[in-house]
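Researcher: Last one for today. Full complex below.
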Amino acid sequence: MEQSKLRLVKIIFFGLIPPLVALFYLCLDVYWIARVPDKAEWADASIKVRKDYQDGDIVVFVPPWALEGLPFFDGLKVWTSETVDWYEISKFSRSWVIFSFGKTPSSIPPDFQEIRFEKGTISIGLYKPSLPYQLVYDFLKNIQDAKVLRHYKDKIEECALFIKERWYCGKVHPWQFVGKETKDFGDAVRDVIWAHPLDKELFLEIVYPSVPMGKKMVFRYGLALKSFEDENPGGPVKIELKISEDTVFERTIGKEERGWFSENISLERRDGYAPVTLQVSTTNNSFRQFCFTADIWR
Amino acid sequence: MEHNKFLTASNGNRWGRRLDHLIPALLAITYFTMLVFTLDIGFPRDESFYFYAGERYSRWFDLLIKDPKRAFTKEAINEHFEYNKEHPALPKILFGLSWRVFGRMHDPAQEPWTRQWYFDGDPPKTILGIMDESTAMRLPALISASFLIYLLCRFGIIFFNTRIAVTSTIAFMFMPHAFWHAHLACFDMPVTTAWFAVCYCYLMAEKTGKIGWHILTSVAWGIALNVKHNTFFIVPTLLLYFLITRWREFGIDKKNGVFKVPSIPLSFVFMATISPIVYYVLWPKLWFDPIDQLKFYFNFHFHHVMYWAYYFGDLISKPPYPWGFSFVMSAVTIPGPTVFMAIIGLLLCLWNWIRIIKGKGTGCISNHRGAVFFVFINFFIPFLLIGNPKVPVFGGTKHWLPGVPFLTIFAGIAAYQMFEAISGIKEIFPSFSVAKERIANLMICLAFISPLMLDTFHGYTNGSTFYNAFVGGFSAMGELRMQREFWGNTAFSALPFINENAPVGSRVHFHDTTYDAVKMYWRDGLLRRDIIPVWDQERADYYLFHWHKEFLNDEAYFKNLVGVEVPIEVVAQDGVPLLNIYERPNLRRGSSGAK
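Model: Here's the assembly. Have a good evening.
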């Protein structure tokens, strides 16, 4: 009897389970392959979007890596990074979300209100941000308003050369500038304001002299992914953000601290216009690719 | 598992002995056929360097024929074998010779523009000319990979049984990453073959005691050292095996108090004496400056440049590297049924071993004592070497390939137990006839082979990007943020678009594809000859951006530079982009262009 039981266990465990696992695997295999959209489906999705697309809209893909159909959306504003930064998406008046690979609107944040949704192999949703705020000032878009100063021990140097949305000190330089750049921060490639610090605790100062105040300021920052490639990266990066003379935020980013960070700063006690100043410094500026964005919302 | 169940299918009879050679040969031929019909795989960076090296090394043989005395001078050796001296010469010599014999060369008298595609502007004369140049270069690699199939099956038959041999061999044949690497004129599959060959010879020497096998072990190791430096680690692996399986023979002799050790295997003696000679003879760079060359060689690899690996959303470029990287990567890149069966096989063997230690088991999984442990350490050590947090991880899954054939033997052991269990049904249900058992076995084989074949052949051009269905298939590259392609070969899949659409004289930035690879694309007629390769974003009309995490800034730079948001074409595998083709705006698109 014992022998029979043992034999039965062997038959089930070794004889039945492995083939069932193999069959299950085969079904999974076929499922993953079958759900890949073909080019005709991407083309069809793009036609539907183009029909009602307006200036100020953006196209987002969910999952964000499903970009085989990207060429069909040529001419439209698209988000192409590895993860969807819904904060950045909220700056657009409407977002067309292209769902594929079985993704559903459950991945859309609650801040986005659905205008319409069309289900299919590729489903298309149209959303608009339902935040109670309006963007009133984008520091990246207004980079030309900035004044960039380098504070040395014995002097202050103004970087007054402005070329292609970048402030240079004296001459064009591959990394010594403050201005528009596009960098990978690990989770996503972003358009940011590049502000590579000076060395040895000399500091870089970026001043926006007249920024309209509102309800809040969203200050986002981090070190680009390249900052961490070397075995001996530079030092921690210290940042201090001031509005008028008040320090509203300060932090030291650790030398191996990866990520794109976000800070909401209340502006409720402020109105009118005020200068906003960011100071950036480090003990060792080797590969300290500090970048930031900032937005005022009302 | 009882010992007598593990006799070979032949059981000693003549026809059975023939089958024991015929089955491995048939599987090897099948594998070779599979490889030959799936050669539409691009040329990775390293392969292009070895194409060039093969070409240069082959010129030494011209000199050998023309002026043998001069060929053996230091100057001639340095002139011909200096390039790529950080790797031994043997594989590249074979690639080069095969290319010379079989390759269909261009004739500059008819096609003057082809001169620049060859070393020194001097294409050699076609000899047999029966295949494309790249295929001719790859032929030795295809043969060596097929030979591995033969050896693996033979090993399984000799030390286990035919069922284990065939199932483990088939498991290895249908492994997307190994299958992809098997096509390439590189070292990773040849070194896997070489490692396995040394182990095969060693264990045969141990089993038979015949001096011929001991000598063959040393020759095999000498040859293996001439393939790639991984094979230096065969020595500590074999030593470990020797020490652990013969530990009882160490001790103090009670009669005379002398410390006794087991007799040293003759293989070790020959490996210490014959292998260095073979190593020396087959690597011309060692002939005149062995010390300097070896210093350079070891120094190069001890301080190897660290590339990147993209692993669950982390871009890894420096230590500490993730623990168990090799184990995890194999678990997600080997087809799921094989992983499952390998784990079952490992656990079975572990359970059996525990039973033997406790004195409860009398069976031996293999007919050769120690064989299972031998298989285990030859699987484990290559994996462990890379799974160590101090060892750089890059190059996908190729650096521990030598351990993979041994892993499949455990899958074979589990498969054997599975068929035994099916066979045991009739002892509980007598109506389960032999015919029904055969049908059940056939269904089970189909249940296993179908997904393995699907995994291997679906997307084989991009086999190095395969992830198994348990983690989402190819979509794991996007969903789990794992490595996509890593070696610059995906440009191959962009060539039809470029050929069809790029205006005459377009400048194409090939990104991670090398100039040597572009030359081979020209030579094989895969790229229009008027296309101008540039590795300069400022000048490029087209940018073939290979999707590597570490290069995303470069993609963004080009997009901003030329003012485009989206690529004009995407090369994807199961919906995941591997390469984006960007076109400079307002570039006239046409189909003109001559080859």
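The two ends of chain B are 63 Å apart (CA to CA). Chain B is about 55% helix and 5% strand.
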